[in-house]
C-alpha cells in the first residue's frame, strides 16, 4: 500500500474520531458558541444584545432572572430557568442582557450558546466546562420537542446531570414558546393512543418540571408597546414629536398585526434609520 493511500486512511479515521477538544482560553471572551463537526467552543467578540434597562414590561421576570444569575455568579446556589411564552417578548434578549449586566462585575461569568440540534453532544460539552474556575450560563434558544424527538433525553444530562450530577459551575437557561416544551396536540395524541395515558407523556412533559424557575412572557398591551419605543428613543437620542411618534408606532403595529418587543424594536430601527441614527 503506497503512502498516499495510507495518508487518506489516516485522514478518514481522524474525521471519524477527531482528536479531543483542547480546553479553550475562557479569558478570551465573555461568550462562546458550541459547535459540532468538529466540536469546538468559538469565542464571540461582541454579543448581540440590548441594555437590560431597555427591556420594558417584563419587570418581574427581569428581576427574578437577574437575582438568580447574580447568586450564581457569586458562587452560590441557583436554579435552571425556563423562559416561556409569547414570541418576540424578550425571552432570549433577557438572558443576554442579564449576562451583560453582570459580566462587568463578574468576569468569570461566561455565556455559552448551545443549539437544540446539538443537544446529543451536551455531555461532552459539560466535560469541558466541569472543573473550570469560570461559571457558565449554558443557553439554548427556542427549545422545543416533537413527539418522536429523542433529543429531550440529552437535555436531562444538563438538568439532572446523570451519575456525576450537573457541574456546580453550570446553570442552564432555555427559552421556548411552549411551557411543556412539546405541542399540546401531540401531548393529547399520545394520551389518547397510549395503553397507560398518564405515563405515556409523563417523561416528556415533566422536563419542564426540572427547571427551578418558570418565567412566563405574555403579549404586551399598547401602552407597554409605546413605552418600549419611547425608551429606545430616549436611549439613542432620537427626538420625535410625541403625537407623531404614537401615530406612526400604532400604524406600524397595525400593519404587522401584532404588538411585541420585537415589533417595537423593528419600528424603532426604521425610525432611527429615517432620522440618520446608527444603532450600535
Explained architecture:
By secondary structure, this protein is an alpha/beta fold. It folds into 2 domains: 26-217, Rossmann fold (3-Layer(aba) Sandwich); 222-274. Helices cover 43% and strands 14% of the residues. The chain contains 11 helices and 7 strands. It has helices spanning 3-16, 59-73, 91-103, 122-129, 151-159, 184-193, 197-200, 202-205, 222-236, 242-256, 261-274, and strands at 31-35, 40-44, 81-85, 109-113, 135-140, 170-176, 213-217. Strands 2-1-4-5-6-3-7 form a 7-stranded mixed sheet. Strand 4 (109-113), helix 4 (122-129) and strand 5 form a beta-alpha-beta unit. Helix 2 crosses helix 3 and helix 9 (222-236) packs across helix 11. The radius of gyration is 22 Å and the shape is globular.
In helices, the fraction of residues equals 40-55%
Major sheet attributes = 7 strands, mixed
Would you list the SSEs in sequence order as H and E?
A: HEEHEHEHEHEHHHEHHH
Rg from C-alpha positions?
A: 22 Å
Structural class by secondary-structure content: alpha/beta
Helix tally equals 11
Spatial separation of the terminal alpha carbons: 59 Å
CATH homologous superfamily name of the largest domain?
P-loop containing nucleotide triphosphate hydrolases
Global shape: globular
CATH secondary-structure class of the largest domain: Alpha Beta
Query: At the third CATH level, what is the topology name of the largest domain?
Result: Rossmann fold
Query: Which residues form runs of ≥5 with pLDDT under 50?
Result: none
**How are the strands of the largest sheet arranged?**
2-1-4-5-6-3-7
Please report the total strand number as a whole number. 7
CATH architect. name of the largest domain: 3-Layer(aba) Sandwich
Strand content: 5-15%
Oligomeric status = single chain
- Mean pLDDT comes to 84
- Number of structural units classed as domains: 2
Amino acid at each position: 500500500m503506497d503512502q498516499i493511500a495510507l495518508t487518506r486512511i489516516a485522514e478518514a479515521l481522524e474525521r471519524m474520531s477527531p482528536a479531543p477538544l483542547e480546553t479553550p482560553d475562557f479569558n478570551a471572551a465573555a461568550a462562546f458558541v458550541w459547535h459540532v463537526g468538529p466540536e469546538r467552543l468559538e469565542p464571540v467578540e461582541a454579543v448581540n444584545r440590548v441594555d437590560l434597562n431597555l427591556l420594558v414590561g417584563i419587570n418581574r421576570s427581569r428581576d427574578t432572572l437577574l437575582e438568580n444569575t447574580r447568586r450564581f455568579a457569586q458562587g452560590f446556589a441557583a436554579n435552571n430557568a425556563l423562559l416561556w411564552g409569547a414570541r418576540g417578548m424578550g425571552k432570549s434578549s433577557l438572558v443576554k442582557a442579564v449576562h451583560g449586566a453582570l459580566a462587568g462585575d463578574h468576569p468569570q461569568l461566561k455565556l455559552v450558546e448551545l443549539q437544540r440540534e446539538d443537544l446529543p453532544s451536551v455531555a461532552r460539552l459539560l466535560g469541558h466546562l466541569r472543573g473550570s474556575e469560570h461559571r457558565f450560563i449554558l443557553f439554548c434558544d427556542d427549545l422545543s420537542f416533537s413527539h418522536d424527538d429523542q433529543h429531550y433525553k440529552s437535555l436531562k444530562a444538563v438538568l439532572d446531570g446523570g451519575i456525576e450530577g450537573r457541574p456546580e459551575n453550570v446553570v442552564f437557561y432555555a427559552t421556548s414558546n411552549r411551557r411543556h416544551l412539546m405541542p399540546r396536540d401531540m401531548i393529547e395524541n399520545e394520551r389518547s393512543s397510549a395503553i397507560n395515558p398518564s405515563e405515556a407523556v409523563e417523561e416528556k412533559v415533566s422536563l419542564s418540571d426540572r427547571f427551578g424557575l418558570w418565567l412566563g412572557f405574555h403579549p404586551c398591551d399598547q401602552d407597554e408597546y409605546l413605552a418600549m419605543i419611547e425608551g429606545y428613543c430616549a436611549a439613542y437620542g432620537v427626538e420625535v414629536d410625541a403625537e407623531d411618534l404614537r401615530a406612526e408606532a400604532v400604524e406600524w403595529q397595525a400593519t404587522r398585526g401584532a404588538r411585541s418587543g420585537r415589533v417595537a424594536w423593528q419600528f424603532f430601527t426604521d425610525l432611527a434609520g429615517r432620522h440618520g441614527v446608527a444603532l450600535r
